[in-house]
Amino acid sequence: MPKLFHKITRSLISLINTIVLVLIALAYLGAYVSPIHISFLSFIGFAFPLLWISNLFFVIYWALKKRKRFVFSLLALILTWAQWHAVFSFNTGKEVNRSELQNPIKVMSYNVRMFDKYVWTKDKTTPQKIYQFIKSQNPDILCIQEFYINNNNPQYSENNIISKFKQFKYKHLEYNIETRSGKKYGLATFSKYPIIFKKPLAFENTTNLSSQTDINVNGQKIRVFNNHLESIRLKRENYNFIDSLEFKSDKERRKGVYEIFTKLNTAFAHRASQAETIGRHIKNSPYPTIVCGDFNDTPVSYVYRKVRGSLKDAFMESGNGFGGTYNGNLPSFRIDFIFHAPEFRGFNYERKKINYSDHYPITTLLELNTQQQK
Fold first, then answer.
1. Collapsed DSSP state (helix, strand, coil) of residue 262
2. CATH assignment of 98-368, given 3.60.10.10, 3.40.50.11540, 1.10.10.410, 3.40.710.10?
3. Which residues pair with 220 in a beta bridge?
4. What is the pLDDT of residues 113-126, one digit of tens each?
């Protein structure tokens, strides 16, 4: 009987290991297949960190058992190391002082959730805290998503909001929604360096928006893309459903899950199309590029691969840990990014864990290699 139990246990472990390997392969494939064509692969991408860690344990287990099967699990880890590094980064380099660099540029990307207009944080001073935080970080280039203006409300009027960013001499505002009541929603790119050209990058069949801003940094032209890609658009009732799932009937569960998966499906497809558009603009840029924004997708995704292309990920260069940037009811994934062209070197990547929005701000210090550009 003990031998039979041992055999069944080993077979079960082998089966689970096989399932994990198949799912890792599908998650990897999902970064190369557009969700417009096959959407279920994108769902698996969310589970990649858990799958990769599980497979690591299988490698250790089979190695201790001296089974050749460990080779397959080890090979899966090696082949997906780049994806894992984009999920979990470990850098031992010391923090660099900007005085040590030539042409240093500190970049910040922050989804401010309309400056907490609806007091989600239950703190009416949050807008002021956001302004003060940005001022304390003193970035040279600031990319804001979910920028909000309401000219019928003095607190959120354009003049008042812009006055909070007076440390920046130049600005580029783009609105994807403008209402008759004076409300505006969009993107803002602020710069201490002269902006020499700017334009919006609109997407079809969606209200999301990206912007292109050309900046002259001490005689060197660079191009900055600020992006806010399609969100899942979950409503309050969707979050309430998730919180009370265990108390729902089977019928209510099926209905609630179907509604959420439908929204995810739609968002995956829209983001894929948006990422392809942004990727084309990045490839066509005559200048070194910096790409910032809220992508609403993970590092193991079609969107991440399409937008990043041959650019460097600032988090991978000098970040640490998992670096989750989502600060909401769902698990924290890294969905906000700063990419840059090879002409830059990245240092001092930070994710600031402050609860002023449903996203954490991220910053990095870049050095423009003028020799490489020439």
1. helix
2. 3.60.10.10
3. 217
4. 999 999 999 999 99
